[in-house]
Amino acid sequence: MLIAGATASVATDCSRPLCDDDDECRASCQRNLERAAEADADAAAAAPVELAALSCTEATVGAGDDEVSERPHCACESEERNYDLWGGDGHCLVVARNASCLLWATELPRDVCVPGDAASCAPVCDDLEALLTEDASRTVTRTLVEAECNFSCYCTADIDGTCFTYPDFGLEGLGPESGVPCP
Question: What is the pLDDT of residue 144?
């Protein structure tokens, strides 16, 4: 608790770089790629994902700049996570392990299910289950292209022919919109 007029001090110096040189970053970036390869091996060795159709509800979807619409959503669940699926717009609903899009909303009908009828989501959940199983069995090639110390580490990796530049704290958050074809 601060006393009136007192200021808090923070132990870290935000003006100090988080890395010293490109070699340090190269090692950190390579460790991220190795962790991703280990996760790939775990995914390939794991039992196939089993999804259950949890519900179909009406939900609000942001469809672009200030455009909002109500439409049915399927909720499919597995032991690891839940998937919220709707149809009709250009969003990537599920990102593959290689950061491409496994399932685009445009691949599903706008009225993907009947609100209140969870069973109407079963075909969509079954299709996603098959896509996730195929993705888990696919070999993903990741190669470090460049590492740079620019206050903190930035990595550029070739992931199945698409290049991604990202901070070195991990590959999470990469998606089809963030990659460019590798030279």
Answer: 95
